[in-house]
Design a protein that fits this description.
Blueprint lengths: L6 H7 L1 H16 L4 H15 L2 H13 L4 H5 L4 H4 L4 H14 L8 H8 L4 H24 L8
Length: about 150
């Protein structure tokens, strides 16, 4: 892609945007959302959206959080993997439905499953994380960020 903008170049010209996106992501954690769950949903949404940069980035973060490799290898098929907690499954289902909501609105059953595992503030945090990563995916794909940009 000849008009590719590297992540580093974007960091220079879009420093204010990076700061705002990082603050948005942090606000999800400030509501009590578990960092590992936040990162798992960011990885799954990035897989759905086909964002190689974000997949590489969130795998790197999840590895630094010492998430077991078998879990990372099966996020794409989390329903069949039998490795994810009930809370992780509820969050992943919600993330998928919000990411794919152009085809259908999120189901009431999926919303109800969240309440069994997360506080209202944590659910707001999940929504923020999902919205944030969807934004990141669109920026990264549009600008041509690559896994090499992750470093």
């Amino acid at each position: 892609m000849s008009d590719r903008i590297s992540y580093a170049a974007f960091g220079q010209s879009g420093a204010d945007t990076l700061k705002a996106l990082r603050a948005l992501s942090q606000s999800a954690l400030d509501r009590g959302l578990d960092k590992t769950i936040s990162e798992l949903i960011k990885l799954r949404v990035s897989q759905i959206n086909g964002c190689a940069f974000c997949i590489a980035y969130h795998l790197k973060v999840l590895r630094s959080l010492q998430v077991e490799p078998a879990k990372l290898d099966t996020v794409v098929a989390w329903r069949e993997a039998a490795l994810f907690s009930d809370a992780e499954q509820a969050a992943l289902a919600w993330a998928e439905e919000l990411t794919l909501m152009a085809g259908a609105t999120p189901r009431d059953e999926t919303k109800a499953a969240l309440a069994a595992h997360f506080t209202p503030d944590q659910i707001v945090g999940l929504n923020i994380s999902i919205a944030s990563i969807n934004g990141w995916n669109r920026l990264a794909v549009a600008m041509g960020f690559t896994p090499a940009d992750v470093g």
